[in-house]
Amino acid sequence: MNEEKILLCLCHMGGGEQKYIAEAFADNWIVPLGPHVTRFEEALSAYAEGLPVVALASGTAAIHLGLLQLGVGIGDEVICQSFTFSASANPIAYLGAQPVFVDSEKKIWNMSPRLLRIAIEDRIKATGKRPKAIVIVDLYGMPADYQELLKIAAEYEIPVLEDAAEALGSKYDGKFCGSFGQYGVISFNGNKMITTSGGGALVCHSQEAAKRTLFLATQARENEPFYHHKEIGYNYRLSNVSAAIGLGQMEILEAHLAHHRHVHELYDAAFSGNEAISLQTNPDSRFDSNYWLCNILLNPEATHKKPEELRQALAAHNIESRRLWKPMHMQPVFAKAPAYTDGTSELLFERGLCLPAGPWVGDREVERVVETVLTFLGS
Ligand SMILES: *Cc1c(COP(=O)(O)O)cnc(C)c1O
After folding, report:
1. What would be the CATH architecture of the domain defined by 16-252?
2. Rounded to an integer, what distance in angstroms lies between the CA atom of residue 83 and that of residue 325?
3. Fold of the 254-378 domain
4. I need a labelling partner for 141 at 20 to 30 A (CA). Which of 185, 254, 279, 333 fits?
């Protein structure tokens, strides 16, 4: 096989990163706290329409500190979208709370407003109290239907945490994804929209919440000349060197977004009119996905081929693809968690595949992927 490998989504350095890392080294800011963390946070905050943003060690840490500040604790129930990556749900368990999974809506693939209402009503009946929080995910960068979901959350007075780990640059109704809940989560892991080699951020809605997040993330150390602690703290701060990488990445974010959207357009043009394939696409003008990954479903009425067979056919041509997320209510680790499902996410898992879309995937690479997919379906 001499075809060059096409990866699903790999990070890409824009050039500014080395300069900022060199600055950090020159000034000996290798310690966790330093000026680049502040500058990175300012850049993120400007991007987040002025909301205060706290840079953390990972997106998972951000979910943990967000839920903690929403008062989630032992014995509470927290509603979480089932169709997601396990990091959306794990912090619920860190806090000794019980996840309750809710299935997705067919068009958008994110939390179903209809099932959210059913789940809330049923949990109140079963436990005598309201779920403590709702974790809504903008999966693959597609915004959830906030108009409907936030109405229900407000009606029952349950706070929302928005897991926008995959959705940096996505918008809903013209507003920044990450801004819809009481807290919003972004990830800078290696395969996300931008990277700090590993890191995340919590988007807050007040300076008090941001200050509290920073306090919890730095070992809950009280402002005293000696080490003084009144609360349990965490070591969740982003390092200054990682933030230096993030600063460089912010300079190429717009170019990345444009590229991901361009790749989606190419797939859209290639697959439109093909009965066997449907490409995940913004359902109407309120939704503006960053198209972090480009995802297809195989239609069983038009093809008997399975996504797993397609994944292997692509791999044989040195093209990496990945099955869609396996829903949390199907995971052995969450087997005992209550779940409100209607088969949607199971169907997505069964029929879907993520195609390569990162900054290294150019027009020629898309052509190769498309050709391999169409050949496989035609054979
Ligand atoms: C990546 C991801 C996270 C976790 O982010 P990390 O920075 O890897 O900890 C959480 N939720 C979703 C949906 C993700 O894709």
Report:
1. 3-Layer(aba) Sandwich (3.40)
2. 7
3. Aspartate Aminotransferase, domain 1 (3.90.1150)
4. 333
